[in-house]
Amino acid sequence: xxxxxxxxxxxxxxxxxxxxxxxxxxxxxxxxxxxxxxxxxxxxxxxxxxxxxxxxxxxxxxxxxxxxxxxxxxxxxxxxxxxxxxxxxxxxxxxxxxxxxxxxxxxxxxxxxxxxxxxxxxxxxxxxxxxxxxxxxxxxxxxxxxxxxxxxxxxxxxxxxxxxxxxxxxxxxxxxxxxxxxxxxxxxxxxxxxxxxxxxxxxxxxxxxxxxxxxxxxxxxxxxxxxxxxxxxxxxxxxxxxxxxxxxxxxxxxxxxxxxxxxxxxxxxxxxxxxxxxxxxxxxxxxxxxxxxxxxxxxxxxxxxxxxxxxxxxxxxxxxxxxxxxxxxxxxx
Length: 333
Prior knowledge:
Blueprint: H1 13-23, E1 25-31, E2 36-39, H2 41-47, E3 55-56, H3 57-61, H4 66-78, E4 85-94, E5 97-106, E6 116-123, H5 125-161, H6 166-187, E7 196-199, H7 200-208, E8 221-224, E9 229-231, H8 232-252, E10 261-269, E11 272-280, H9 294-305, E12 310-314, E13 320-327, H10 328-331
Helix pairs in contact: 5-6, 5-8, 6-7, 6-8, 7-8, 8-9
C-alpha cells in the first residue's frame, strides 16, 4: 500500500505572521533604485529608529558600530554576487547600548523582485555575548595555565640558587609548590554564604609565601596592611590582582633577582583602601610602550569593576610601584 503524496502546507498571512513573531524575525526590503529602506515594526524597534521614519540604506548604516560600518556596507553591496544564502553579523549602537544583528537573505539577485531586495534581521545579542563570555573564560584559563607553568619554572630556578643539596632543593621546592597550590585556591571562585573569608593581611601572606626565600634568606617580602576583614566577593578579585602582580615580579621584576625585595603596604584614605606594591633591587625596567597585555588588562578590569577602584603604575629605576585603590565598602562584601 503506497502512502498518499504530501502536498506543501498552504500558509495564510496570519499564520506566517505568527511564525515570524515566534522566531523574533524582522523583515526588511531595500529599493535598489531609490536606496529607500523599509522594515516591519520589529525592525524599527531593533534598530532604535522611530516608527515609519523615512530611511535609506546609508541613513541606517549610521546606526552600525563605527568599527563594523565599512565592512557591512561592502558586504551588503557584495551580496548581489553571492550565490545562495548569505549572513552578515554586525554591531549597532542604540544610544549607549551595543546590540548584535544578523542580516540574512539570498544573493545573486535571487530575491530581487521589481527592483526590491528583501531579507530578515535577527537579534543575536544574547548569542554573541555568550560567545564572548566563553572566549574570555578560555583566554583567562589559558593565561592562568601559562602563568602557573612560568611560576613553577621560576620557583625551581630560585630554589636551586639557595639550596645546599638536592635533598634541600627538593624539600624547599615541594614546600613552595604546596604553598602555591594553597594560594591558587584563593584565585578560584569561593562557595557562597561564607561571610568574611579572611583578614586582608592573611590573604597577602598566603598568596606571597611561595615567592619568599627560605631559611637565612627569608624576609625579602614584607607586608604591612591594616587589619581588615575581606568579604567573599572581594577576595577573588583581590587574589587575582595579587597573583598577577606576583607572577610578573617573579618573571621580570624584583622577585626574579636575588637582591630584589617587595614591600606591600596599605592605609585607609577616606572611603578607600590604598595598597602600595613596591619592588626594589630587581632588573632595570622601563615603562611598557606596547599595547596593554592580557594580564595588565585583567588587573585593571578587576580593580575597576569588582573592587570599585583603580590601579596605577610608576616605573622608578630598578623597580615598579603599583598603587591599588579599593572601595572599602566593596572590600567587605
